[in-house]
Specification:
Elements lengths: L5 H24 L7 H9 L5 H35 L11 H15 L5 H24 L7 H25 L4 H8 L8 H20 L1 H7 L3 H6 L4 H23 L5 H13 L3 H23 L10 H22 L2
Helix pairs in contact: 1-3, 1-13, 2-3, 3-8, 3-11, 3-12, 3-13, 4-5, 4-6, 4-11, 5-6, 5-11, 8-11, 12-13, 13-14
C-alpha cells in the first residue's frame, strides 16, 4: 500500500483529480487537427466559427467527458465485481456483461432498426442483466457452488457465445457492418454530448450507490460467514452490487460500446495505492479509470495518424499482459 495515512490518501485523491483535469484538457487539445491551448480558450471567450473552434466544442469536449465518465464507470464496476466474486480477474468485459449489452444493442440495430439512445440504453441494460444472471447461474452449478474459477470460465463461455451471436447478426445487415464493428471495438469518437447526458443519471446512481455501500463491502470482503455474524444482510448487499454493476456497465456500453480490461486493471492499481478499504478504493478507482481511458484515447489518435484506432483496442493492448500476470499469479497461489 503506497498511501498509509488518511491525510496522504486525501492528498493523493486531490492530486489524482487535478491529473484527471489535466488529461481532459489534453484530450481537448491534442489530435489530428492542430489546435492549441489558446484556441481552446478562445473557442469559449472569442468563438469565431472556425474549423478548429467547431472541432473543439462539438467533437473533442464531448469526447473528453465521455471517456472520463465511461472509464470511471467501468473501473468502479470492476471493483464491485471483484469484491462480489472474490475473483481478481472479474470485470464487465471478462464476465460477458459487455458482450451481453453489445449483443442487445446490435440486435436492436440490425433486426429492429433502432437508432436512438433511449432504445440503446434500455436494451444495453437488458443485455447486461441477462449476461450477469447467466454467468452467476452457470457459475453456481455443481457441488462446490459458486467459485472464482467457475465464474471466470462461465464468463468466458457467455462472452464467446454472445460475441458469436453478434457476429452472426452482422452478416444479416452488411450496410451497418462498418459502423457496428467500430462501435463493437469500443470507441468514444464521434459521440455527442447528448449521448452522455442520456446515460449520466444511471452512471450517477452507480457511482453514488457504490460509495454508499462501500462500508458494507468491507464487511462482505471478510467472508460470508463473518459478514453474517456481524449482522450484515449479505443477500441484499449482493443484489445491490449486481444492480449497480448492470447500471454502470450497461450505460457504458450504450454510449461507447464494449470497452474491455479497464474494469480488471484499475482495481488492482488502486488497491496497491490505497489498500483494501473500499471507502477509498471506489473513489480512487473512478478517478484512475477515467485517467486511463483518456490516456488510451489520446494515444489511439496518434498510432495510425491520420486514421485512429478504437480506444477499446488500446485498452486491450494495455490490459492483456496485465490479465496474463494476474491469472498466473492467481493460479500459482493455489
Amino acid at each position: 500500500m503506497l498511501l498509509k495515512s488518511t491525510l496522504m490518501k486525501w492528498l493523493g485523491l486531490v492530486v489524482a483529480v487535478f491529473l484527471l483535469i489535466g488529461f481532459m484538457c489534453a484530450s481537448v487539445i491534442y489530435g489530428y487537427t492542430d489546435t492549441s491551448w489558446q484556441m481552446a480558450i478562445d473557442s469559449f471567450t472569442h468563438y469565431n466559427g472556425s474549423n478548429e473552434h467547431i472541432i473543439i466544442q462539438t467533437v473533442r469536449i464531448p469526447r473528453a467527458f465521455i471517456a472520463a465518465a465511461v472509464g470511471a464507470s467501468l473501473a468502479i464496476a470492476g471493483v464491485l465485481m471483484q469484491t462480489l466474486t472474490k475473483n481478481p480477474l472479474a470485470s464487465p468485459g471478462i464476465f460477458g456483461i459487455n458482450a451481453g449489452a453489445g449483443l442487445a444493442v446490435v440486435t436492436a440495430m440490425t433486426l429492429f432498426s433502432v437508432h436512438n439512445m433511449q432504445g440503446f440504453n434500455a436494451l444495453a441494460f437488458l443485455g447486461a442483466t441477462v449476461a450477469a444472471i447467466s454467468v452467476y447461474v452457470i457459475g453456481s452449478i455443481g457441488r462446490e457452488g459458486l467459485t472464482p474459477i467457475k465464474l471466470t470460465l462461465a464468463g468466458a463461455a457467455i462472452s464467446a457465445m454472445f460475441s458469436s451471436f453478434t457476429q452472426a447478426l452482422l452478416v444479416l445487415d452488411e450496410a451497418l457492418l462498418d459502423q457496428v464493428l467500430f462501435w463493437l471495438a469500443g470507441s468514444v469518437s464521434g459521440r455527442k454530448l447528448e449521448t452522455l447526458v442520456s446515460v449520466l443519471p444511471y452512471m450517477g446512481i452507480g457511482w453514488f450507490g457504490a460509495l454508499l455501500i462501500s462500508g458494507k463491502m468491507n464487511v462482505l470482503a471478510m467472508g460470508e460467514d463473518v459478514a453474517k455474524g456481524l449482522g450484515l444482510n449479505t443477500g441484499l448487499v449482493k443484489i445491490s452490487i449486481g444492480v449497480l454493476v448492470v447500471l454502470l456497465a450497461g450505460a457504458s456500453v450504450a454510449v461507447a460500446g464494449p470497452i474491455g480490461f479497464v474494469g480488471m486493471v484499475v482495481p488492482h492499481i488502486t488497491r496497491s495505492i490505497t489498500g483494501i478499504d473500499h471507502r477509498w478504493v471506489i473513489p480512487y478507482a473512478g478517478v484512475i479509470g477515467a485517467i486511463l481511458l483518456l490516456a488510451a484515447d489520446i494515444a489511439a489518435r496518434y498510432i495510425l495518424m491520420p486514421s485512429e484506432i478504437p480506444v477499446g483496442v488500446m485498452t486491450a493492448i494495455i490490459g492483456t499482459p496485465f490479465f496474463i500476470y494476474i491469472a498466473r499469479r492467481g493460479f500459482n497461489a493455489r
